[in-house]
């Protein structure tokens, strides 16, 4: 595409035209290929403008920059290179990418999920429902990316716009008509999702997380609320909101220009509700009550939080034109979401071992409450293993410590991606909360050893919760990142027990 045409949708402060053709767009100099436009933007860690020369050496033919100095320098030193000076790097990245890639976002009906917990699960459920009804979908989220039947890795929950648009483009080529994506608060705040037209926006819940990044709950809320105002787009056509959430009124206000679909387990003002809820070890059943009638729903996902996720996904599926009957059929065929209440086969041990991604105090409380419910009849104990991520919200650590020790019979404190921090120092912060109760607490910073101790502490009838890492396949330490998978480690311990 010709550089001038590519720039047509950019709001530039100044531009220098050049007779170049552009093939692609990159925001990271290390990925630039011959013929690309390099979008140089200032980030929290690095300044992309420092990498302009590297990008040109790798073959960039045009530069979009958010720095006047960088723009002037490119014009002076590289007159044959296309250049544009913009106010907002990430917005420009989205605009130029959409333009160069031929606007794949206009050819997909996009459903976007935000909230503290339940985004991945709700997005998986919605995609499964749409697929079950015969639609071809793109899915973008924490665990994996789907392009029709193709499964790809996911480096981020919500990638940069350029990467989202590339995936959308591949989806369109594969015949997709729908896209479902998680929109993290980081991505909404940074506007990685600029100009993505959202048809159905879904809110799961808002509790504390990510205050290292947002600073206050007000800012965290404001980031999530951006989805409902539209990020460089008109507001979503439909907003699916959790009426049981403490912040429901605020989200209703934020979504005032959309048609609301409200769902709830408790709140009777919600339009979409449940009756006769039965949470069983292997499945959940309820009657889904809607303004258009009711239908029995039966799903292999268990736990109260999954009633919410099923409700949110079902409302969104309805908004996307599925019938209630199609949704009920899809719910029955739902598959395990990797690392979300995933039971590790425990042979004849009589112990239940569960891997889950709970990494906030709210998620831990819900997870432990479900475990308590499941062991109640058999008189089993709840043993909870978890850690807190390094270089992440420090203020949630003691709260998670308290939540785990309040609900469990035994807590095993360990490491969960300590990143640049000292694992023992993180554990000390968690302990301040854990010590507010009298629950026994084992401290073992080595996660594999801790999993072994947790499982060996269990007796027949007990449940062992391995929380925080879910689907993750690595442990991020200060010096290195090592392969690590809770499911694999737990399976190894259980196998040894069976042999010994
Ligand atoms: C805090 C945060 O969101 N950071 C993300 C953000 O970083 P940033 O804006 O500070 O960018 P930067 O690293 O300073 O770099 C600035 C620019 O220089 C460029 N650069 C940099 C180095 C180089 O050699 N060449 C080069 O061109 C970069 O590509 C970038 O365009 O943009 C970067 C480029 O996309 C991301 O890699 C980075 O993710 C970091 C690694 C991260 O950990 N992000 C997490 C917190 C995150 O975003 N998580 C949420 C989900 C959270 C949840 O699940 O609840 C997510 O959506 O994934
Ligand atoms: N609706 C819900 N309400 C509260 N907690 C939930 C809900 N759904 C799931 N959880 C808990 O939160 C954990 C993470 O769920 P999920 O991965 O679906 O959320 P997420 O919002 O995508 O998280 P992340 O932002 O870290 O990617 C689950 O393992 C479970 O313990
Ligand atoms: N995706 C989220 C949750 C990660 C949970 C836990 N495993 C951690 O590393 O803190 C994050 O990056 O903050
Ligand atoms: Mg997620």
Automatic annotation (TrEMBL):
Associated pathway: Cell wall biogenesis; peptidoglycan biosynthesis
Which reaction equations make up its catalytic activity? Answer: UDP-N-acetyl-alpha-D-muramoyl-L-alanyl-D-glutamate + meso-2,6-diaminopimelate + ATP = UDP-N-acetyl-alpha-D-muramoyl-L-alanyl-gamma-D-glutamyl-meso-2,6-diaminopimelate + ADP + phosphate + H(+)
Gene3D superfamilies xrefs: Mur ligase, C-terminal domain, Mur-like, catalytic domain, MurE/MurF, N-terminal domain
Q: Which SUPFAM superfamilies match?
A: MurD-like peptide ligases, catalytic domain, MurD-like peptide ligases, peptide-binding domain, MurE/MurF N-terminal domain
Which keywords, in A-to-Z order, does the entry hold? ATP-binding, Cell cycle, Cell division, Cell shape, Cell wall biogenesis/degradation, Cytoplasm, Ligase, Magnesium, Nucleotide-binding, Peptidoglycan synthesis
**One Gene Ontology term, aspect cellular component:** cytoplasm
Q: How is it modified after translation?
A: Carboxylation is probably crucial for Mg(2+) binding and, consequently, for the gamma-phosphate positioning of ATP.
Where primarily located?
A: cytoplasm
Q: What residues bind UDP-N-acetyl-alpha-D-muramoyl-L-alanyl-D-glutamate, as annotated?
A: 29, 157-158, 184, 190, 192
Q: Which Enzyme Commission number(s) are on file for it?
A: 6.3.2.13
**InterPro entries per the UniProt record, alphabetical:** Mur-like_cat_sf, Mur_ligase_C, Mur_ligase_C_dom_sf, Mur_ligase_cen, Mur_ligase_N, MurE/MurF_N, UDP-N-AcMur-Glu-dNH2Pim_ligase
What is the protein's given name? UDP-N-acetylmuramoyl-L-alanyl-D-glutamate--2,6-diaminopimelate ligase
Residue intervals of the Mur ligase C-terminal domain: 339-470
Q: What class of enzyme is it?
A: ligase
Organism of provenance = Edaphobacter acidisoli
């Amino acid at each position: 595409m010709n550089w001038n045409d590519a720039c047509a949708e950019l709001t530039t402060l100044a531009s220098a035209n050049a007779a170049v053709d552009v093939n692609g767009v990159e925001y990271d100099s290390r990925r630039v290929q011959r013929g690309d436009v390099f979008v140089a933007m200032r980030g929290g860690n690095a300044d992309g403008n420092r990498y302009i020369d590297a990008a040109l050496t790798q073959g960039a033919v045009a530069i979009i920059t958010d720095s006047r100095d960088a723009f002037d320098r490119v014009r002076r030193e590289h007159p044959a290179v296309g250049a544009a000076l913009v106010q907002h790097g990430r917005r420009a990245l989205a605009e130029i990418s959409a333009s160069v890639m031929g606007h794949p976002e206009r050819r997909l009906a996009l459903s976007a999920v935000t909230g503290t917990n339940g985004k991945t699960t709700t997005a998986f459920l919605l995609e499964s429902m749409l697929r079950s009804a015969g639609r071809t979908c793109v899915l973008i989220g924490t665990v994996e990316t789907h392009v029709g039947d193709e499964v790809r890795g996911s480096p981020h929950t919500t990638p940069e716009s350029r990467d989202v648009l590339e995936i959308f483009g591949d989806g369109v080529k594969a015949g997709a008509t729908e896209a479902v994506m998680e929109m993290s608060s980081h991505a909404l705040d940074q506007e990685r999702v600029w100009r993505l037209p959202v048809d159905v926006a879904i809110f799961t819940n808002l509790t504390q997380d990510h205050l290292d990044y947002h600073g206050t709950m007000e800012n965290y809320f404001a980031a999530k609320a951006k989805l409902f105002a539209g990020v460089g787009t008109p507001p979503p056509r439909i907003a699916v909101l959790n009426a049981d959430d403490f912040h429901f009124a605020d989200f209703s206000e934020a979504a005032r220009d959309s048609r609301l679909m409200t769902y709830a387990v408790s709140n009777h003002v919600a339009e979409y509700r449940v009756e006769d809820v039965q949470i069983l070890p292997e499945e959940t059943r309820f009657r889904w009550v809607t303004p258009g009638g009711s239908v029995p729903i039966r799903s292999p996902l268990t736990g109260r939080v999954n009633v919410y996720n099923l409700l949110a996904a079902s409302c969104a599926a309805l908004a996307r034109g599925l019938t209630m009957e199609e949704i009920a059929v899809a719910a029955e065929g739902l598959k395990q979401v990797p690392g979300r209440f995933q039971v590790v086969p425990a042979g004849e041990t009589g112990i239940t071992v569960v891997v889950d991604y709970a990494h906030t105090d709210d998620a831990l409380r819900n997870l432990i409450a479900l475990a308590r419910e499941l062991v109640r009849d058999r008189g089993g104990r709840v043993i909870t293993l978890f850690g807190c991520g390094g270089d992440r919200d420090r203020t949630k650590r003691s709260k998670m410590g308290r939540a785990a020790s309040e609900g469990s019979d035994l807590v095993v404190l360990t490491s969960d991606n300590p990143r640049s921090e000292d694992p023992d120092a993180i554990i000390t912060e968690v302990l301040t909360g854990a010590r507010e109760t009298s629950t026994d607490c084992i401290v073992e910073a080595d996660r594999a050893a801790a999993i072994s101790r947790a499982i060996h502490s269990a007796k027949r009838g007990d449940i062992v919760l391995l929380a925080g890492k879910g689907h993750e396949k690595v442990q991020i330490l200060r010096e290195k990142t090592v392969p690590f998978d809770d499911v694999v480690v737990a399976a190894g311990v259980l196998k040894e027990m069976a042999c010994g």
